[in-house]
Design brief:
Layout lengths: L7 H17 L3 H28 L2 H15 L5 E5 L4 E5 L5 E2 L9 H7 L9 H30 L11
Antiparallel strand pairs: 1-2, 2-3
Amino acid sequence: IQLEFSNIKDNYQQIAEFKYEEACEWNKERARAEYELDLHIARVRCGELYWLRTTFEGIDLVDLSLAIAQELYPERKWEILENDEDAIVTDRKRQIVFDIKNFDKLSARGSLFYLGDRYLPLTEAVVHEVEEFRKERIRFFENTLNIIKNCLANSGEIDPGQSH
């Protein structure tokens, strides 16, 4: 199994669409209501992940990921992989990956490769994905530095339009 948080919304939508098609044969109105509820649940679940990512610091997020992994799959052996910037939780066979911090930016295999793990064979697509992720991070940090420089140049006042 490859568990990727980025697929939560897609998975819920597929399930909702399947249930809707099946239920339409009996009661179209009820089926539509259940479909809307399933999509709402998907939005809430993704929102919870964004909240976790922005609320917890890196090490706390990894500890939380490890606790979730151990609760969901207590029979598996878990490892924390980390580099200077990020950390993820994975089982020893690399079949399940918990990456709450970058779940919407990297695939499970991309997260493993980004952290320097070479257990799984690489594909050109994964290498490209991680290269693009690194470029985006550099752009983000450059933009943040420019905002700080502008702030310092303007006597410490931050322009609200630049605080994104």
